[in-house]
Amino acid sequence: MITKEQVTQGYKQIQDEICAGLEQADGTGKFVEEKWEREGGGGGRTRILQKGSIIEKGGVNFSAVHGKLPDPIKKAFKVTSDDFFATGLSLVIHPNHPFVPIIHMNIRYFEMPASDQQSEPIRWFGGGIDLTPHYVIADDARFFHQQLKNACDLYNPDFYPKFKTWADDYFYIKHRQETRGIGGIFYDRLTPLTAGVGWEQIFEFSKAVGRSFLPVYTELISRNKTRPFNEEQKQWQFIRRSRYVEFNLVYDAGTKFGLETNGRIESILMSLPPQANWHYDYTAQANSEEEKTLALLKKGINWI
Amino acid sequence: MITKEQVTQGYKQIQDEICAGLEQADGTGKFVEEKWEREGGGGGRTRILQKGSIIEKGGVNFSAVHGKLPDPIKKAFKVTSDDFFATGLSLVIHPNHPFVPIIHMNIRYFEMPASDQQSEPIRWFGGGIDLTPHYVIADDARFFHQQLKNACDLYNPDFYPKFKTWADDYFYIKHRQETRGIGGIFYDRLTPLTAGVGWEQIFEFSKAVGRSFLPVYTELISRNKTRPFNEEQKQWQFIRRSRYVEFNLVYDAGTKFGLETNGRIESILMSLPPQANWHYDYTAQANSEEEKTLALLKKGINWI
Question: How do residues B45-58 score in pLDDT, each as one tens digit?
């Protein structure tokens, strides 16, 4: 049986691997770590890299917290018990370069005792990884989705199509009628019943999602980091980042959960970009690369 | 008895006065108008000034819409009838200069038939004006609040203290434990019963709030527009603007209402700044002007 300690240790190790790999890919930037403790129980390791050669602002945050669930969350989770344990690894990278995409990855595990104390605890895994290119590059999008499909297929051939659709629906900016980017995979409340595989396999899948990030993103960095760009493309990057802000502050469940439960604000909002611009009623020029990107920010595109 | 047409005409005229006055104060910037129509009924005049000498991005928007209320709004308003009429004038100004404050003003009127069709319609006025200085300057804050108090006192001496407290509570960024700025006045559902004065007086008060904006803001512009500033102060302005984004996207009721009812997105989000920056865990230096400002972003400060 998978234990909290195993998940905690597994996620911590992936955090270490990712931070080491990103520092290497960046070349000059270094992560700065802040260890923090939560008043109600547990804590985390927030690691932030700012003003690197590739990464303008990136966070790779681990946390493992426990305690009593606030009432609104109990209601939202439809559970009666108070005690909870939650551990997760979350990252968001905002690169300097407009042709290097923004990326987000999260893996998480939640556990609480059953109401009757006799039964098995209530537990589930959740997570996902999604890409937000400032300019959608079809080859990169195909590569990204193919790598995710490969990771999924090792565990259950139903995972990729199901979790890909879930990501399209989740990473959607309703008021703009745009997806946040080209999606990826998203899943929640994964249990043997919903996953069709056992806990050990679900845990292995969760770690595989976490470990899929580094090779995929470093490949996308090396493909694009030396491409020339101009001031207009940089402005477009700032506009795309403002959509990222809109999604995270208006819709993102993790951000809302964090703000409502008095989470550690700077760790939660590390996902926001170093600079974002709002132009009134920006319209992309006909047949421009910007317009082509907008046309691809739709649900239901099969990239593979 | 006040009619919809009177309120509509009154607010439109104030929009004209404000736009003319702001163009004069700016010197070079001109408002660009877009007239729009709402599918369900009514429409508006969105006026935006970008890249002026003083105003980097400002919007002064009038709308008068009518139609059927969506169910979630009926529930929120605790009303049974479907038909509604709403008119309002809203403005947000983001200046170039870090010593010129951000300002917001809104006046609005809402009306719907009574459930039994026989009684008087259900109606109320709402509105407010609040100031968000990047650097809080005590003299300016006093002046701002004194002018609002003067406008209020002509109608009811209870208005200013009541509406000042309401603004402190409303313009509050809970997750930062900061007020958005130095507040001002905020009121909603004003009727003879809640206001202690008749409908004509409430309408006059609503217009007085609208007309208080121009002399107050042009005074604050001329006091501060020639003050020298450096790159650090400009960065601080971008950080303060990111808090403005956080308030508007996470808490502002008007923004939420607009996004949920499929309002005209560009008119709703004109309130967002041209550029905002998020630094991870920014800390103001001890005894700096930035730290002094943070210490004044609290509820309950009596500026007069």
Answer: 999 999 999 999 99
Distance of CA A89 to the CA centre of its chain: 9
Within chain A, strands assigned E span 32-37, 42-50, 55-68, 83-95, 102-112, 122-132, 172-173, 178-179, 183-190, 275-277
pLDDT averaged over every residue in chain B: 94
Of B269, B270, B281, the CB nearest to A266: B281
Mean pLDDT value of segment B9-36: 98
pLDDT of residue B117: 67
> Which tokens hold the place of A226?
């030396």
Q: What is the CA radius of gyration of chain A?
A: 19
Q: pLDDT band at A29, cuts 50/70/90? A: very high
Measure CB to CB from residue B48 to each of A57, A249, A280 and give the nearest one. A280
Tell me, what amino acid is at A67? G
CA distance A96 to A234: 9
Q: Would you call B291 helix, strand, or coil by DSSP?
A: helix
Q: How far apart are the first and last CA of chain A?
A: 36
Nearest to B277 among A59, A174, A275 (CB): A275
Position B157, amino acid: P
The CA distance from A93 to A103, in Å, is: 5
Q: Which residues of B touch A270 (CB under 8 A)?
A: 280
pLDDT of residue B1: 81
Compute the count of residue pairs across chains A and B with CB atoms less than 8 Å apart: 75
Give the residue-averaged pLDDT of B142-156. 98
**Looking at per-residue confidence, does B41 or B6 come out higher?**
B6
Q: Write the CA distances from A276 to A224, A273, B234, B239, B281, integer angstroms.
A: 21, 6, 15, 11, 17
Does residue B172 surpass a pLDDT of 90?
A: yes
DSSP symbols for B112-167: E--TTSSSPPEEEEEEEEEEE-SS--HHHHHHHHHHHHHHHHTT-TTHHHHHHHHH
Give A168-189 as a 3 state SS string.
HHHCEEHHHCEECCCEEEEEEE
Closest residue on chain A to B252 (Cα): A250
Q: Sign of the C-alpha dihedral, residues A200, A202, A208, A210?
A: negative
DSSP code at position A233:
H
pLDDT confidence of residue B238: 98
Q: Label the pairing between strands A275-277 and B32-37.
A: unpaired
CB A281 to CB B34 under 8 A? Answer: yes
Render pLDDT for A163-179 as a digit per residue (tens, 0 to 9).
999 999 999 999 999 99
Under a CB-based contact definition with an 8 Å cutoff, are residues B244 and B92 in contact? no
Which token pair is A176? 């703009």
Share of chain A above pLDDT 70, in %: 99
Distance of CA B230 to the CA centre of its chain: 29
ipTM, 2 dp: 0.92
| Of A205, A199, A185, A229, nearest in space to A95 by CA | A229
pLDDT for residue A81 is more than 80: no
CA distance B245 to B233: 19
User: Which pLDDT score, from 0 to 100, does residue B123 have?
Assistant: 94
Q: How big is chain B by its Cα radius of gyration, in Å? A: 19
Q: Give how far A254 is from chain B: nearest CA, Å.
A: 13
Higher pLDDT, A103 or A262: A103
Q: How far is B212 from chain A (nearest CA, A)?
A: 26
